[in-house]
Amino acid sequence: MENIADSFANLCDSYITLADRFNQLDVEHMTLKEKVVPLLKTLKSYQQAIVTLQSEKQVLQQKLQGTQEECKVLAAKNDSLKVLEPLLKDEVITLLADATEQAALVKETISEMDSNHAPDLNEDEKSLLSIFYSDPERFSAIHHQPSSPGSDSTFASKFAAPSPDPALV
User: Fold this and answer.
1) What is the pTM of this model?
2) Residues 16-55: pLDDT tens digits?
3) How far is CA 79 from CA 19, 72, 73, 93, 94, in A?
4) Helix (H, G, I), strand (E, B), or coil: what is residue 27?
């Protein structure tokens, strides 16, 4: 009987060891699954991004081909018109040169206007305008407050002038 009892005890120990191992394996499997699932989701999103980018690439290639064809057509038209240039009168050539100069002047003027949107204002006036454009309500509230004796009455000295918003100026 002792042999049978020892055999059952050994068998129970083996089952307990096996159950512990399966439990440990299950925990490791769940841990691995927690790490693999986000990785698979990321991989799937990358695959979708690749498909999207490939379709966008095809669209852009088609647009590029169309643009290249248009460029070839325009170059051919330009070449065909160059043949006619000698037929132009000197007067027309002079007018074209003047028009080209005027276009350059217009571009230069627009560039200057973009860089200095108020050339007739001094720096204090520009500062006041930029403060007003940045916060009109605050400007109105401060502007209508009576200034106390001995204080600087200029608004620009009370607030730092932020850069003006080009869309508003």
Assistant:
1) 0.36
2) 999 999 999 999 999 988 888 888 899 899 999 999 999 9
3) 87, 10, 10, 18, 21
4) helix
